[in-house]
Amino acid sequence: TQVYSGSSEAIGKIFKSVKASNRPLARWALTAILAAAPKEATRASRIRQDIRQIALKFPLDDLVDVPSLTAFKGLEEVYFEDFPATTCATLAGLNQVRQLRVQNAPRLTSLTGIESASNLELLNIQGSPALIDLAALTKKASFTRCSQLRLHLSSHADLTPFLAIPSIHSLSISCDGPLP
Question: Could you tell me the strand order of the sheet in which 51-57 lies?
């Protein structure tokens, strides 16, 4: 999995000197530092602006916070593995994200945070048996380009929000019980 892409070659060089077993933690730590850097930190701001893709694997424990990616204004593709959060609030305000992939999100209960993703074309969230709140999908202006949805939901989720997305060409829904 490519971690960062864009004009951020220096970041890639950092990871070459980190042991393979420690790289997921190093990537998370670097992302958290970049996210927390104030806009006056011009180098960090420039790196954040240049990053187009982020792929993060989180340790599934309570010791790790999901950093807000709001300051990564150029971000177009996001991939999370072992996502520990209950919402997608880490993406709040990112309207240029085109693809969001989340693999193994056992605590995710709500899509809140993706409402402003007006350029979202692909939403793929798997391994999220607690996902029940799909209200973010009802923001019609946000999802006019979204053509592919693949979600693993709670069997208690209300499916009506899917009706608010006129551009869906491919829809795949799974759950750990009967569909509602």
Answer: 4-6, 51-57, 77-81, 99-103, 122-126, 148-153, 170-175
